[in-house]
Amino acid sequence: MSNLFNVQAEQAVIGSLLLDRSGDNTALAVALLTPHDFSAQHRLIFESVIVLHELEQAVDLVTLYADLETRGVAEDIGGIDYLGNLVNSVPTAANAKEYISIVQSLGLKRQALRLLEEQRQALEESSDPLEVIAGIKAGAEELSERSPSDRGMIKISEVMDGHDDDLDTRSKSKGITGVPTCGYDLNKLTGGRQKQDLIIVAARPSVGKTAFMLNNSKAAAKAGTTVGIFSLEMPGKKLGERMLANIGNIDGNMLRTGLLSPEKWGDYTNARMLLDGLPIVIDDTPGITIQQIAAKTKQLKKEYGEIFIQIDYLQLINSGKKFSSREQEIAYISRYLKQIARDNDCPVEVLSQLSRGVEQRQDKRPMMSDLRESGSIEQDADEIDFLYRDDYYNAETEKRNIVEIIVAKGRNTGTGLVEMAYLKNLSKFVDITRIDY
Question: In CATH, what number is assigned to the domain containing residue 241?
């Protein structure tokens, strides 16, 4: 790929940085380019440019050559004379942006060719084409992140076009502006699950996360939205069984044993008819990658239009890439989930585990810091709901079978707390009726 380097453009970039006294060109180059965008000789020089920039030092002949000497590569790049020639080869630093663009474009082209070659080899060696497709998608996403955006700035008047129609639609929806949830008070607080929002639902094991998700599935499907469930923990048939318990008011133990009374067989038959009519689709592929989730969501959007995506659960999603730490991997997955919500104009609800740190406190209600690898999740999520059951910790509590839904973050809704009754054997969340005297 040696013919995919433009040595003159690379020389012009570095020469422009050496001529630039403001440091603006250096900041732009460091933001848009990587050392691998340059051929071998200039790659060494640009690595020193990055070092100086991170140390907030000026990039000139003296500082650049000093860093090259410190790294022991000064003679490899041609010495101080070569750096002087780079300065003399550029008439002005004013065209630095154009030089940078040329080098960046060629770097992206080489990266794309490398990706294609790697995936060609992977296809020859792998028996699973889906795995190869996931790899291609991961590489394509990397290229997309580095590609310059051609989207320009838009006037606020254009952004707000049609806003009066939005208000009219909201008023007719009686406050539910998104996909409805299973709770009246929760809908009142949040307006439902909003398009393009990433919603995290987190709790300790066995508190009711999956049941809560399925109750939201039913509410959304009954309202006419197609629900796509990615179940990484539980087989699809088990989820279906829970929904049958919910719809038919059938004790889950009866379904697990098959010991249904004649009356309950009638309830089961009716529940099956209702469940079969709901627009819910399930993918229970174990170890599914985030790239596969994105591809399948895109297909759902194309096929059904209005969709609501649910994932059980975040920590089981395969990133499809290698990372030096689990925190970096979760950050990557979290950003990807938010992008899926935006790209498909749909809400994405993701279940998440909480760390054991909550067990060490006297008040065991979850907090943001209890989210596993919490930093990126906390940042990317538009809404974070914590589920808390007092009877999970305190057998003597007066709040038996009551779940607190704590909206700890609501980028567009604010925060608050909602209580619902949780009938565990029926996998059912129900509103609590309050009577005011």
Answer: 3.40.50.300
C-alpha distances (whole Å) from 238 to each of 226, 242, 276, 284, 398 are 20, 6, 15, 10, 31
Q: What percent of the chain has pLDDT over 90?
A: 27
Residue 162, in any domain of the structure: no
Classify residue 242: in a domain, yes or no: yes
Query: Helices 40-54 & 61-70, crossing angle to 10 degrees?
Result: 110
- Structural domain count of the chain: 2
What percent of the chain lies above the pLDDT cut of 70? 88
- The reply to whether omega before 99 is within 30° of 0 (cis) is no
Residues 93 and 219 in one domain: no
Q: Are 342 and 196 in contact (CB under 8 A)?
A: yes
What's the CA gap between 299 and 365, in Å, rounded?
38
Neighbouring C-alpha atoms within 13 Å toward the C-beta of 340: 31
Residues 144 and 190 in one domain: no
Q: How many residues does the chain have?
A: 437
Q: What is the domain extent for residue 45?
A: 1-152
Q: Distance between CA atoms of 131 and 136, rounded to whole angstroms?
A: 9
Residue 397: CB atoms within 10 A of its CB come to 12
406 and 369 in a common domain: yes
Confirm if 230 and 293 have CB atoms less than 8 A apart. yes
In a domain, 158, yes or no: no
Rounded-to-integer distance, Cα 398 and Cα 387, Å? 17
Q: What is the pLDDT of residues 49-102, one digit of tens each?
A: 998 888 888 888 899 999 999 999 888 988 888 988 888 888 777 888 889 989
User: CA–CA separation, 396 vs 391, rounded Å?
Assistant: 7
Supply the pLDDT for residue 385.
Answer: 94
Buried b or exposed e, range 21-33, using 16+ CB within 10 angstroms: eeeebbebbbebb
Would residue 49 count as lying in a domain? yes
